[in-house]
Amino acid sequence: MNSASPVGGDGASHPRPTVIQLSIKEKDALYAAYIPLFTEGGIFVPSSRQYTLGQDVYVLLTLPDDSQRYPVAGKVAWITPPGATGSRTPGIGVRFPADEKSRALRARIEEILGANLAADRPTQTL
After folding, report:
1. CB atoms within 10 A of CB 31
2. Which of 45, 60, 87, 106 could potentially form a cystine with 41 if both were Cys, beta carbons 3.0 to 4.6 Å apart?
3. Angle at 101 between CA 103 and CA 56, to 5 degrees
C-alpha cells in the first residue's frame, strides 16, 4: 500500500472520508460524469488514486453555470482502474446517499442536462 493512500494501516478501516473537489464546467462533461442508473444518482470522479468499493468519500461538487458547491457524502460504487480497456478514464463512481440533499442535487443535475439525459452518447460511466 502506498503512503498516499487514504486508507488506514490494514486497508480495512476508513477513519475519515477522503475529500474530493470536483468542478464540472460544461454540460457535456456533466453528461459524461452523471450516473442516473444509481437509484439516488451518482457522479464519476476521474482519479488515479486507489480506492476500495464501499469506501466513504466526501465530494464537493460544482455544476456548470452554478456557483453553489454541493457537498455529497457518498460511497465508492465502482472503480475504473488505470489501464482499463477501451481507453476509459481511470476513476471512481460515487453513489449519492438516500437523503433529501441528494434528491435535490439529482433534480438539479437533471434540470441542467434536460433533453441531453435521453441522448445515446457514450459516457465515462456504465
Report:
1. 20
2. 106
3. 100
